Amino acid sequence: MSEREIEITTLGHRGDGVAETETGPIYVAGALPGEIVRAKVVDGRAQKHVIEKPSPDRIEPVCRHYSACGGCSVQHLAEEPYLVWKSGLVEKALRDRGIETEVSGTIAATMGGRRRAVLTATRAGRHTLLGYHEKASHRLVDIAECPVLDPVIVEALPGLKSLASEVLPKKGELRMTVLVTTTGLDVALDKADKGYERKIPALSQKVVDQNLARLSVNGEVILELRPPLLDMGGIGIVAAPGGFAQATLAAEHALSKLVIDGVGKAKTIADLFSGVGTFALRLGRQANVHAVEGDAAALAAFDKALRKPQGLKKVTFERRDLSRRPLVKEELEPYDAVVFDPPRAGAQAQAEQLALSKVKTIVAVSCNPATLARDLRILLDGGYVLQSVTPVDQFHYSPHIEAVAVLTRP
Fold first, then answer.
1. Average pLDDT over residues 40-69
2. What letter does residue 58 receive in the DSSP assignment?
3. What is the distance between the alpha carbons of residues 230 and 17, in angstroms, rounded to a whole number?
4. How far apart are the first and last CA of the chain?
5. pLDDT (tens digit, 9 = 90+) per residue, 87-142?
6. Residue 366 and residue 403 in contact, taking contact as beta carbons nearer than 8 Å
7. Which residues bind S-adenosyl-L-methionine (predicted)?
8. pTM (2 decimals)?
């Protein structure tokens, strides 16, 4: 098959350059709109392309691992067009559901702001590799730097690799979740060797040597030198081992401000898919809040925080799987506003009940533009009016984007 010249017209939702041709789209990894590339094409994908005319928006990647590492996809794109692309991902998802609305400019991520990282460790002969998988591969990139991570995590990489080496499974990979807290690093190892218990003394010594706040292995807390605390608007939450937290502190602040501004002067608020209380604890300073979450560990952390006097109004919670048992119309009626922040699958069942309700204000937070658009379509068809949509970028150089949408019922 001979090479052909290809002109890139758009940047796809995964960060690939896309050329629209008479025979269908051609995807070119690493290419940018406006570029001319030469490559062989197999099944709609360019193979080992050469850039003949680069885009003026092309920049030098900031990380030495970028060409191989699958953690980032668009380090080669300048900041301004990058943020426009991120807003465009949300706009396209909305248009696909017939929603034509103005999308605000993307709130930018902070370089080196990722406080939570999920790393992989594996054996390579006598050596331990720790990092991310290569692009479209099961091979691992042993990282020595990562510009998107908090420098505290990057500085700790050698020690974390040493920690992982103690409990690597004989076959397969070890999963490591690292979280920067106000009291130090919280490290959770998953899929560790089943005989890890005999390594507890060595693991404990490494926790002390590295001054970690806490270490957990396969769900068991091995040693906690200090409770790993997250600051939720002035209220301390003890993080659940390996549990969810907003990836960057700057994005958490941005999302929280959008949520608080969105609910306005509401006096009674339901916070659905509330997690550890990222929004509920902040909202509780101005309104009565009922938080609903399905994860027991998250609610346990939330409950523990509420047991201390915090200067909050009435804040209550319940454990409930909202995907299976959403709050129904009658349960929603007492609330002036509802906030929901579901996982990537979205909140279809809950949106259907909200569409039947008389709740005045809804604030939807989402990490998936496609399911957000689906849920907003349900609410719009139920009579709600979309007031604003704001993208928030907390996953720098990746195709992932958060968004906050505010709706009101006339």
1. 91
2. B
3. 39
4. 60
5. 999 999 999 999 999 999 999 988 889 999 999 999 988 899 999 999 878 899 99
6. yes
7. 246, 273, 293, 341
8. 0.93
Q: Is 273 annotated in some ligand binding site?
A: yes
395 marked as binding residue:
no
Say if residue 170's pLDDT is above 90.
Answer: no
CB 194 within 8 A of CB 165: no
The 10 Å CB-count burial string (b at 16+, else e) for 218-238 is: beeebbbeebbbbebbebbbb
Q: 281: left (phi > 0), else alpha (psi -120 to 50), else beta?
A: alpha
Q: pLDDT band for position 244 (50/70/90)?
A: confident
Count CB-CB contacts under 10 A for residue 205: 12
For residue 25, the SS3 value is strand
Mean pLDDT across the stretch 246-259?
95
Q: How far is CA 49 from the centre of its chain?
A: 31
Q: Is 394 annotated as a binding residue?
A: no
**Per-residue pLDDT for 248 more than 80?**
yes
Alpha-carbon gap, residue 129 to 259, rounded angstroms? 40
Token pair recorded at residue 175: 């999963």
Just list the catalytic residues. 367
Element (H, E) at 158: helix 151-166
CA distance 235 to 250: 17
Indicate whether 336 pLDDT > 80: yes
pLDDT in tens, 19-48: 998 888 999 999 999 999 999 988 889 888
Q: What is the mean pLDDT of residues 392-403?
A: 93
Residue 293 known to bind ligand: yes
Count of other CB atoms within 10 angstroms of residue 109: 26
* CA gap 210, 221 in Å, rounded: 16
Q: What phi, psi does 112 have (nearest 5°)?
A: 70, 30
DSSP string, 90-153: HHHHHHHTT---PPPPPBPPPTT-B-EEEEEEEEETTEEEEEEEBTTSS-EEE-S--TTB-HHH
Cβ-based neighbours of 307, under 8 Å, separated by 6 or more: none
Bridge partners, residue 230, by sequence: 237
